[in-house]
Amino acid sequence: MALSTDGSVRLDSGQWVELRLQFPTSGRYASEVVASASAEGSELWIEDYVDNPDGRTYNITGALRIPEGDSLDTASVDGSPLRADTLHPMRIHSRKNGIQLHMATFTLLREHRASKRIMTQSMEGSHWGLVWSDEFETKQIDTSKWTYDLGNWGWGNNELQYYTEGLKENARTENGSLIIEAKKNENDEAWTSARLTTRGKVAFLYGKIELRAKVPRQRGNWAAGWTLGNAYVDELSWPYCGEIDILESVGFELNDSTGDGIAHATVHTPAYYFKIGNQISSVRPVADMAGTWHTYAVEWTPTEVRGYVDDELYYLYDKNANRREWPFDEPQNLIMNLAMGGGWGGALGMDPEMSAQIFELDYVRVYEKIDP
Description:
By secondary structure, the chain is mainly beta. It is built from one helix and 29 strands.
């Protein structure tokens, strides 16, 4: 690393410069760098919380590409999650062919808002009673229930898509269903898609959460209906805030002809999560998962999480000895999204013939136990 007379920093491949920053507001930021590269071009990325106690690598930008040539270029991504109430030790890393770094800026795009309305479901009765739902019968997505997540920072998994806000090409209601559509080479992005969440609207504590869905089938997609703790603010929050995966499906497990696939149910906690390779999961083959409606549900009680496909139990998580095993005594927000590529969705590459994928949801419902 070398400092030039104009105040820029030369970073050879594999080198980094460290910053210590504080942010005035928690939220989603545009992360932007101004740099120049050698004749071959280069890449850089920004790491947050470099001194975190778990030894994690928090990549909050994915690869920022600087094209070849000596002139200054700007590279940016949207949506990097940053918290206000802490000091951020950050590093800007160079890789490939080195860069001359001139500037890095972070611009607030959207303030973080946790859900203030918390619905706590009784689990003591003998029958299920509906307490919240979206049947997607409205002409437009109901923004009193859903917020759009925004950006293309990789979402912690090196995903390819830009999640858009309010674009019907990526999220819309149609014939009583929610359509989340990923589209290739849209709006100067490799992929665009949508991620809808109840964060900022309502969070849930316990209950039965059920969705009825058809999943996309081509290699490279990653569809999910899941929950994330209301305590989530930025990447340091996870997995301490907890995550419950009601349904996950990846396209490389789908049969293009029959639509048969595999449903995954998982929870992630500080004690058990996928980035340390010990997550507790179950899978179930599902016939014509892509072409036929199936219901996916979890029953979340104060002591366990049970997962179902078409009312058949196939998953149980009951480790609750301490908060590292059981963060699920705090509320969770719902998320419905369709990612493209990434560490799991793109593990076997992307179907080169694929130009669009659709994740279709007939409803999302939350129940509690009641007495008749």
